[in-house]
Design a protein that fits this description.
754 residues, alpha+beta, Peroxidase, domain 1, seven-stranded antiparallel sheet, five-stranded antiparallel sheet, 14 helices, binds 2-acetamido-2-deoxy-beta-D-glucopyranose, peroxidase
C-alpha cells in the first residue's frame, strides 16, 4: 500500500461502533465486503489503489482521483426523480457520459476502474456507492455507512445541476432528488472539499492559463476548509469567487448564501461538518430507483470469515480436500496473539464420523495479513483431507489465544455450511485466457445424479466503443453439462464454452444441479483460478451409491413413489460389506418416536432421571425409564426420563439426531444437545399427568399412515395431484380419511389436504 491515508483520531470502524454480530455466512454481501475492507496485503482487492493516498492523480496532473470518485457518486444519483421513483444511484452514468452534463475525463476513468470489480455480486451501482465510502475515507473523512443491493440501470437519465442554474432551479432540482434547501447546501459543502474545477470542462470559470483551481486550500483532505474559508471571506473556490461571477456561474456562492449563510456557518464547526457529511453522503448513495431494496444494515467487516472455501476431489476419489482461509479481524486484537484457528467439521449427515482420525478437525496458523482503511486481518490457511465415505456438511471454528483462552464461532448458531453435493473440480477444468476457451469439470454426488446439471458463466463483454461507455456488459451464459465417468461416490460432468477472450479472467463460474428449492451448487468461482490446461483425474474407484440423511439432502422429487419413508442416514457404498442401516425407530415398546429434540436452556429437557453407559440402546433406555411418559437418548450413550418437557426445549430436524446408539449401531441415540425423544401412547388425563409444555409435535403415525417428512410442492403442479380438498376444520385424521386408499396424503397451509 502507498502511504496510509490520514486517519483522524477517535474513529472506530462501524463494527466496533455497533458491536454487531457477524452476518450469517454465506451472505449476499460477502463479495462486496471483501472488495471494500480487504484492501491491501494478502488477498487484497486493491480497490483503493488509485485513490490512496488521497492526493493520488491517476488520471493526470491536477486531477485528484478521490475527488472524481466522490463526484461520480453525485452525478450518478442526480437524475433521481422522487416523484416518479426513477433513477438514482443505478450506474446509469455509464450511458450519460456524452450528454453534456457530465463533462471531463474523470467520470469515464472512474467507471473504467470500478468496472474491474463488476460481477453478479457487485453491481456497478454498489461499486459507485463503495467508491464514495472509499474516497471519503481515504482522504480522512468519516465512515459513510454502506448498505448494498443497488441494481444497474440499462439506460441513461439526466438532470445534473449546472453552475449557471438559478437558485430556484437548484432548489427544485435538489427537491426532486430528495434533498430540501438546507440539505442542498450541506451536500454541496460535503462534496466540494476535494478536488478542483478544471479549465477544459469549465473555461468560463477557470481560464485556460490557470489550468485548475481548488475548492479550498486543502483539496486532498476531507476537511471543512471549503466552509471555513467561505465564511472567513478568503475562499479561492472558483464557484464562489473569480471569473464565475461575471458569467453567473458562481453556483456555490449562490447555494451557500441562499439561507443567509445560516447552514454553512453551522458547518464551520468541524464536528458538525463531519457528522453532517456522514449522514448526507449516506443519504446520497441511498437514493435509488423505486423497487430497489437495500440491505437493512450497512456492511461491516466480519470478525471471523471463511474466504475462498473450496472442495476438490483428490485423485483416487477416496478423499476430498477442503481448502481456503479463515480470515480473522485483528483490528483490536493483534494477529500475533492468536496461536491458531481450529476448524472442526461435521460429516455429510451432521455427525462426527471422519474415517480413522479421532477428530474431524484441522489446525491453521497465520499465513498472511491484510488491511482496509480501519481494519487489519490475519489469514489462516485451511487444508483438510476429508474421507469421501463420510463427507462434510458444515464446520465450526475455535480461535486459540497465546494466553490460553479460546473463542468459538458457530456462524450465529448455524455452523458454517459446506456442502459436498456438487463440486467444481478445478484440476480437471481449464481456461485459455487469450481465446477464452473454457472447459469445466464438475463432480455430482451420486445420490443426486439425475438432476439436470448446468454450468453458469457470468462474464464481461466490452460495449461498442463508439458509444464511449467504458463499462462492459455483464453477460450470463447457461450451459447444460454432460455426465461422464463415475468415480466412487461422484460422477463427473463436463461442459465447454468460449468466453469473450479479452476479459475472460474476470468471468465467474457456477455449477448447479437441480433448480429452485432442490438446487445444489458450487458458486461464483473465479475463472482466473483455473490453469491453462485441464489435468487428468488419476486413479479409479468403483461406482458407489450414496445415501444421505433427510436433513442433509433435499428431496429430489416429492412425487416419486420411491421416496424413502425412514430418515435413513450414513453413507453406504455397494462395495463395502453391509453394516446394519440405522433407521429412526418409530415405535419402541409402548412408546412412539416424537422427533429429534433440543435440550432446554440451562435445564434438561427431561429432568426426572438420567443414565449413561456404553451399552445404551433405545430398549435399555426405555427400561430405565419405566413408568415415565417420556424418555430420550442423547449423545449415543445417555438416557433421560421425565413426565414433562422443559418449555425451552424444542423440536429439531430428525437428521440432527445422527449419533448411533453405543450399544446398537442400527439405532439412533440423539447427538450433542439433541434428544431422540419418545413418548408414551397411553392416554393421559391432564389431572393425573402433567401436560407436556412443549406441545406441538409431528405425529409419527396417523391411522395406517406414517409421517414421511415436510416436503415441498412440485414446480408448477401439485406434489400429490389425485384428489384435494380444503376445509377450516382440517385435521390430519380427516385428511387421512379423505385420502383412504392412496399411498400418500399431505396437509398444507393449515386447511388443505391432498
Ligand atoms: C430540511 O430538512 C431538515 C431535516 O428534516 C430540517 O431540519 C430543515 O429545517 C429542512 N430545511 C428546510 C429548508 O425545509
Ligand atoms: C482565511 O482566513 C482565516 C481567518 O482570518 C485564516 O485563519 C486562514 O488561515 C485564512 N486561510 C487562507 C487560505 O488564507
Ligand atoms: C454570506 O457569506 C459570504 C461569504 O463570507 C458573504 O459574502 C455574504 O455577504 C454573506 N451573506 C449574508 C447574507 O450574510
Ligand atoms: C457501434 O455503434 C455504431 C453507432 O451506434 C454502429 O454504427 C456500429 O455498427 C456499432 N458496432 C457494433 C460492432 O455493434
Ligand atoms: C439453465 O438452463 C437450465 C436448462 O435450460 C434451466 O433449467 C436452468 O434453470 C437455467 N439456469 C439458469 C441460472 O438460468
Ligand atoms: C444404486 O441404486 C440404484 C437404485 O436403488 C440401483 O438400481 C443401482 O443398481 C445401484 N447401483 C449400484 C452400483 O449398486
Ligand atoms: C439401566 O439400564 C442398564 C442397561 O440395561 C442397566 O445396566 C442398569 O442397571 C439400568 N439402571 C436402572 C436404575 O434401571
Amino acid at each position: 500500500m502507498r502511504a496510509r491515508a490520514p486517519v483522524l483520531a477517535g474513529l472506530l470502524s462501524l463494527a466496533a461502533q455497533t458491536g454487531r454480530a457477524d452476518p450469517t455466512w454465506p451472505a449476499a454481501t460477502d463479495h462486496m465486503e471483501e472488495i471494500v475492507y480487504q484492501l491491501q496485503g494478502f488477498r487484497g482487492s486493491l480497490f483503493n489503489d488509485i485513490i490512496t493516498p488521497c492526493d493520488n492523480e491517476a488520471a493526470g496532473p491536477g486531477r485528484i482521483t478521490a475527488s472524481e470518485w466522490l463526484r461520480v457518486g453525485f452525478h450518478d444519483m442526480a437524475p433521481h426523480n422522487k416523484y416518479f421513483g426513477t433513477n438514482g444511484v443505478d450506474g446509469s452514468l455509464q450511458f450519460e457520459l456524452n450528454d453534456g452534463e457530465n463533462t471531463g475525463p474523470g467520470h469515464a476513468t472512474t467507471l473504467k476502474f470500478l468496472a474491474n470489480y463488476l460481477s453478479s455480486r457487485s453491481s456497478l451501482a454498489d461499486l459507485i456507492a463503495a467508491g464514495v465510502y472509499a474516497s471519503v475515507r481515504s482522504c480522512g473523512g468519516p465512515v459513510v455507512p454502506l448498505r448494498l443491493g443497488r441494481v444497474d440501470a440499462t439506460e441513461g437519465g439526466n438532470g445534473v445541476p449546472q453552475p449557471q442554474n438559478s437558485i430556484g432551479t437548484f432548489i427544485s432540482q435538489f427537491d426532486r432528488m430528495g434533498f430540501n434547501a438546507t440539505e442542498m447546501i450541506q451536500l454541496v459543502a460535503c462534496g466540494h472539499t476535494l478536488g478542483s474545477v478544471h479549465s477544459p470542462e469549465f473555461p468560463e470559470i477557470v481560464p485556460a492559463a490557470t489550468g485548475q483551481i481548488s475548492f479550498d486550500s486543502s483539496n486532498a483532505v476531507y476537511d471543512n476548509k471549503v466552509v471555513t474559508e467561505y465564511v472567513a471571506g478568503n475562499t479561492t473556490n472558483p464557484l464562489v469567487v473569480g471569473a464565475s461571477i461575471a458569467v453567473g456561474r458562481n453556483s456555490d456562492g449562490r447555494i451557500f448564501g441562499s439561507d443567509g449563510n445560516v447552514t454553512i456557518r453551522a458547518m464551520a464547526d468541524p464536528t458538525v461538518y463531519r457528522n453532517t457529511c456522514q449522514a448526507l453522503l449516506q443519504r446520497m448513495i441511498e437514493v435509488v430507483p423505486a423497487g430497489v431494496t437495500l440491505t437493512p444494515d450497512p456492511i461491516a467487516p466480519y470478525a471471523v470469515k471463511p474466504v475462498g472455501m473450496q472442495l476438490t476431489l483428490n485423485d483416487g476419489a477416496a478423499t476430498l480436500l477442503l481448502s481456503g482461509y479463515i480470515r480473522v479481524r485483528t483490528t483490536e486484537l493483534p494477529a500475533s496473539s492468536i496461536t491458531n484457528v481450529v476448524l472442526t467439521w461435521k460429516d455429510r449427515n451432521g455427525g462426527n464420523s471422519c474415517g480413522s482420525s479421532a477428530t474431524c478437525s484441522v489446525t491453521a496458523t497465520l499465513q498472511g495479513v491484510a488491511n482496509g482503511f480501519d481494519d487489519t486481518f490475519g489469514f489462516f490457511p485451511i487444508q483438510a483431507t476429508i474421507p469421501v465415505a463420510s463427507g462434510i456438511s458444515s464446520f465450526t471454528l475455535v480461535l486459540n489465544f497465546n494466553d490460553g483462552t479460546s473463542k468459538s464461532y458457530d456462524n450465529n448458531g448455524n455452523s458454517y455450511p459446506m456442502s459436498d453435493a456438487v463440486i467444481l473440480q478445478k484440476p480437471q477444468s481449464c481456461l485459455l485466457q487469450g481465446s477464452g476457451a473454457l472447459t469445466v469439470s464438475a463432480l455430482v454426488r451420486n445420490d443426486i445424479v439425475g438432476l439436470p446439471v448446468n454450468l453458469g458463466v457470468s462474464y464481461l463483454v466490452p460495449r461498442n466503443t463508439t458509444d464511449g461507455n467504458p463499462v462492459p456488459a455483464l453477460t450470463q451464459a447457461n450451459i447444460t453439462m454432460t455426465a461422464g465417468d463415475c468415480v466412487g461416490q461422484y460422477t463427473f460432468y463436463t461442459a465447454s464454452f468460449t468466453i469473450y477472450g479479452g476479459l475472460s479472467y474476470n468471468a465467474r463460474l457456477s455449477v448447479t444441479a437441480g433448480s429452485g428449492a432442490t438446487a445444489y451448487s458450487d458458486d461464483f468461482i473465479k475463472a482466473s483460478d483455473l490453469s491453462g490446461t485441464c489435468g487428468t483425474f488419476s486413479g479409479s474407484a468403483t461406482c458407489a451409491n450414496v445415501t444421505v440423511s433427510s436433513t442433509s439432502s433435499l428431496p429430489t422429487s416429492t412425487t416419486s413413489s420411491s421416496t424413502s419413508v425412514s430418515a435413513t442416514t450414513t453413507t453406504t457404498t455397494t462395495s463395502s460389506t453391509a453394516a446394519p442401516t440405522p433407521t429412526i425407530k418409530t415405535n419402541v415398546g409402548g412408546y412412539v418416536f416424537v422427533s429429534c429434540w433440543t435440550e432446554g436452556t440451562g435445564v434438561r429437557a427431561l429432568s426426572e432421571a438420567s443414565f449413561a453407559y456404553d451399552s445404551m440402546t433405545l430398549e435399555s433406555c426405555m427400561a430405565n425409564c419405566t413408568g415415565f411418559d417420556y424418555w430420550a437418548t442423547e449423545y449415543g450413550r445417555e438416557c433421560y426420563c421425565g413426565n414433562s418437557l422443559a418449555s425451552s426445549s424444542a423440536q429439531a430436524p430428525n437428521g440432527d439426531c445422527s449419533m448411533l446408539c453405543a450399544g446398537d449401531p442400527s439405532e439412533f441415540c440423539g447427538a450433542g444437545n439433541r434428544l431422540e425423544l419418545y413418548s408414551t401412547t397411553a392416554t393421559r388425563t391432564t389431572s393425573a399427568t402433567p401436560t407436556p409444555t412443549a406441545t406441538l409435535a409431528v405425529k409419527p403415525t396417523v391411522g395406517d399412515y406414517v409421517f414421511v417428512g415436510c416436503q415441498t410442492e412440485a414446480t408448477s403442479q401439485r406434489a400429490l395431484s389425485e384428489k384435494t380438498y380444503a376445509d377450516d376444520s382440517m385435521t390430519l385424521e380427516s385428511c387421512a380419511a379423505f385420502c383412504a386408499g392412496f399411498t400418500y396424503f399431505g396437509t398444507e397451509y393449515g386447511r388443505e389436504c391432498e
